[in-house]
């Protein structure tokens, strides 16, 4: 059936391109996951990704019995490489990932399509809440959702991280940026047909990667709260955390009467899905401060081209003139520099242009968001990585404590009256009329990747946690 789906869909190249576009799959599964066409497209997309990934080299063990040893070896290797990184940094080496704060913020934005569906690949496991083989996967999903506590829900944490740094208005990304999120959502809604691939994917995603450690460390150095990343270092740990549960889930789902070899091959393919899409390293390497700045100015041009007053000219043109046609941003910046509106390699405060946009009393306050201002700031000051102070190792703890305190919200908040809680009261009333089985189905409905961060979704998650803890 699935092979037939793929064959018929790929018979026309144009149709296949349209159908298998990662961004389309991603958006449609978030907006209308019940739509049969969206479901079909997501299956085709998964099959295509699996077909690609099968041909790539991999380090996955050939025998299930070697799985635990393989995970422990991976953890050891990552630990050793991280120790090497810390040593180099301690001796004065520059940051490996983020030479500037704007690069770090750009990274946070570019991984957002994946992080905003964090945990979603496990959603389909909820349907099997009565089956003991799925309990590890379900517990992991519940933890991704913070068990209904918004201060621990991973997607909410990520949204807050973006908002706190003024980079929650995401620019348009390439299709490649959506590949990982689309794979995750496609697994969420096709769990029953892709169980071996799902447990394999989960196994790969929950292993501790080196880039997570480096990212958390360098964000802290740049005064950007790394809590979202440090949280994953702890909850995904290989001793008792999600990485260990992922190994146990593979073992629990291993068939005892069917073709074990085929199952294992499919687990391996699912594991390798983690290699697709943009890696952290690729995102880091693709960043160019001036290119990013020019792209940002080009985006803003559309909104600013007719609203500047014409009382002053820069290089013989009004600001509206400069913004009236695409492709002038570089020349505009150069002219601002020549006319001393911008003084590069100096504190941005010395630049008249910067004083126009920075601070609550600035004439253009609010025109640029946090990320956009950071790009301008870093470009003007021409921040150089080699000038950074050597890192301090105690950064994480400071942030973790503060974050937990700031983000914790009483889980009773949704029980108070008022319009803002209307949604939760509706769900509560709805649940009262249902049998236990129907009730669980309704809770699962509200715990989907696009709903679990809403008040109703958080409430449903808390209810599910209570019911599920009675089952396991
Ligand atoms: Fe997570
Ligand atoms: Fe996790």
Describe this structure in words.
Strand 1 and strand 2 form a beta hairpin. About 60% of the residues lie in helices and about 0% in strands. It contains 25 helices and 2 strands. The protein has a two-stranded antiparallel ribbon with strand order 1-2. The chain folds into 3 domains: about 50-285, Heme oxygenase-like (Heme Oxygenase, Chain A, Up-down Bundle); about 290-385, no CATH class; about 410-470, no CATH class. The protein is globular and about 80 Å long. The chain starts with a helix and ends with a helix. Helix 4 (about 35-55) packs across helix 10 (about 180-190) and helix 6 (about 100-110) runs antiparallel to helix 21 (about 370-380). It has about 475 residues and is mainly α. Bound molecules: fe (ii) ion (FE2) (2 copies).
List strands and helices in order, with pairings:
Blueprint: H1 2-9, H2 13-19, H3 22-31, H4 36-53, H5 67-90, H6 101-110, H7 112-115, H8 135-144, H9 154-164, H10 179-188, H11 195-205, H12 210-221, H13 227-235, H14 242-253, H15 260-272, H16 280-286, H17 289-304, E1 313-314, E2 317-318, H18 319-323, H19 329-338, H20 352-357, H21 370-381, H22 395-407, H23 422-432, H24 436-446, H25 455-471
Antiparallel strand pairs: 1-2
The chain binds fe (ii) ion (2 copies).
One fe (ii) ion binds at residues 206, 235-236, 242.
């Amino acid at each position: 059936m699935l092979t037939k789906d793929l064959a018929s869909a790929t018979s026309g190249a144009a149709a296949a391109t349209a159908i298998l576009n990662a961004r389309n799959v991603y958006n449609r599964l978030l907006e209308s996951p019940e739509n049969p066409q969206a479901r079909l497209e997501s299956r085709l997309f998964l099959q295509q990704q699996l077909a690609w990934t099968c041909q790539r080299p991999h380090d996955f063990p050939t025998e299930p019995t070697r799985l635990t040893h393989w995970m422990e070896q991976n953890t050891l290797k990552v630990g050793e490489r991280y120790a090497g990184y810390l040593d180099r940094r301690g001796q004065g080496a520059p940051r490996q990932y983020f030479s500037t704060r704007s690069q770090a913020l750009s990274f946070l934005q570019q991984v957002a399509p994946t992080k905003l569906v964090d945990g979603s690949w496990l959603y389909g496991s909820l349907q099997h809440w009565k089956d003991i083989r799925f309990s590890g996967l379900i517990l992991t999903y519940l933890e991704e959702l913070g068990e209904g506590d918004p201060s621990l829900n991973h997607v909410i944490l990520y949204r807050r991280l973006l908002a706190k740094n003024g980079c929650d208005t995401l620019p348009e990304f390439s299709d490649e940026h959506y590949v990982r999120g689309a794979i995750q959502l496609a697994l969420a809604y096709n769990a029953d047909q892709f169980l071996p691939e799902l447990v394999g994917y989960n196994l790969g995603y929950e292993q501790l990667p080196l880039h997570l450690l480096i990212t958390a460390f360098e964000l802290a150095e740049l005064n950007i709260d790394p809590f979202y990343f440090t949280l994953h270092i702890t909850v995904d740990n290989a001793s008792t955390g999600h990485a260990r549960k992922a190994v146990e889930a593979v073992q629990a789902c291993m068939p005892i009467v069917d073709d074990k070899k085929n199952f294992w091959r499919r687990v391996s393919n699912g594991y390798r899905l983690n290699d697709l899409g943009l890696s952290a390293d690729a995102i880091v390497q693709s960043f160019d401060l001036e290119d990013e700045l020019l792209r940002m100015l080009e985006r803003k041009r559309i909104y600013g081209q007719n609203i500047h007053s014409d009382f002053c000219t820069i290089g013989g043109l009004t600001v509206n003139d400069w913004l009236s046609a695409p492709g002038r941003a570089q020349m505009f910046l150069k002219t601002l520099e020549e006319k001393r509106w911008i003084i590069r390699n100096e504190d941005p405060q010395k630049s008249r242009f910067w004083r126009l946009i920075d601070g609550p009393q600035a004439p253009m306050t609010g025109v640029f968001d946090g990320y956009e201002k950071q790009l301008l700031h870093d470009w003007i000051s021409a921040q150089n990585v080699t000038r950074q102070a050597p890192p301090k190792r105690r950064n994480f703890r400071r942030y973790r404590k503060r974050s937990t305190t700031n983000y914790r919200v009483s889980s009773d908040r949704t029980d108070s009256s008022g319009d803002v809680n209307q949604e939760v009261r509706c769900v509560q009333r709805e649940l009262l009329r249902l049998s236990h089985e129907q009730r669980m189905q309704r809770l699962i409905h509200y715990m989907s990747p696009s709903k679990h961060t809403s008040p109703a979704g958080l409430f449903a998650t808390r209810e599910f946690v209570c019911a599920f803890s009675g089952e396991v």
